[in-house]
Amino acid sequence: MNRSIQQLFDLKGQTALVTGGSRGLGLQMARALGEAGAKVMLTSRKASDLQEAAAELKAGGIDCDWIAADCASEGDIHALAGETLRRMGQVDILLNNAGAAWGAPAEDHPIEAWDKVMNLNVRGYFILSQYIAKHSMIPRKSGRIINLASIAGLGGNPEGMNTIAYNTSKGAVINFTRALACEWGKYNITVNAICPGFFPSRMTLGTLKALGEERLAAHAPLGRLGDNEDLKGLCVLYASAAGKHITGQWLAVDGGTSVVTGG
């Protein structure tokens, strides 16, 4: 049976767990999954942010719930995953989005800050993916894992942007995506990554202020920063039947910034 394009992108009956889902890019993608029909579980550290985000999604007709958790903590991750499965029955789509950044010159970068970034951006992705796969996706031989990387994981930075730990972590996420896709393809689990460029958000506020929004936008062939709908299409593609033959891949959503060479 050949499905229509509307049927291929339809997520009705699917469940999604979105980390870092209370604001910014995470909330944008949670909204996309919900608009496509999925039931969404949001998580982040702050209950107040989650309540506000859930109310916003529900006002738009999206079926969603929330659980506060620190995705840098193994104990919190296991509790989050277990409670999500208890409430939702299964997780069809896992969106690893929670992340941290730290700005400091490499020669002076605090080791504790390096560990903080790595624990959340890499270790947390692995622990949650492992738990959800083992307890929900592998037994059912079905699942979609989407990892948020960054164009920072593709190389270095412009002058004045010193985020060595963040860049390293996002490079690790890209290869984590490839390696996991190779291992779990036999279970019909796809694993893909999204590499956003510069989007206005609370995390990027300092960078945008220091380097200037106009300057950063000028580096992109499209001449603009990302907005509050630019990740929605790719997120739903990866999550849906439309993307069932895509795995181990990353795609930059950056207005073309990452393909510019020669300064």
Account of the 3D structure:
- The chain is an alpha/beta fold.
- The chain has nine helices and seven strands.
- It has helices spanning 5-8, 24-35, 47-59, 74-88, 111-140, 164-184, 205-211, 213-218, 232-239, and strands at residues 15-19, 39-44, 64-68, 93-96, 143-148, 189-196, 250-253.
- A seven-stranded parallel β-sheet has the order 3-2-1-4-5-6-7, with helices on both faces.
- Strand 4 (93-96), helix 5 (111-140) and strand 5 (143-148) form a beta-alpha-beta unit.
- Helix 2 (24-35) crosses helix 9 and helix 4 packs parallel to helix 5.
- The termini are far apart.
Keywords:
263 residues, alpha/beta, seven-stranded parallel β-sheet, 9 helices, 7 strands, 14% strand, globular
Layout of helices and strands:
Blueprint: H1 5-8, E1 15-19, H2 24-35, E2 39-44, H3 47-59, E3 64-68, H4 74-88, E4 93-96, H5 111-140, E5 143-148, H6 164-184, E6 189-196, H7 205-211, H8 213-218, H9 232-239, E7 250-253
Parallel strand pairs: 1-2, 1-4, 2-3, 4-5, 5-6, 6-7
Helix pairs in contact: 2-9, 4-5, 5-6
Shape: globular
List the strand order in the largest sheet.
Answer: 3-2-1-4-5-6-7
Question: Helical stretch count?
Answer: 9
Percent of residues in helical segments?
Answer: 40-55%
Q: Rg, please? A: 18 Å
Please trace the helix and strand order, writing H or E for each element.
Answer: HEHEHEHEHEHEHHHE
Low-confidence stretches: none
How far apart the termini lie comes to 50 Å
Total strand count, please?
7
Overall average pLDDT: 95
The computed structural class is alpha/beta
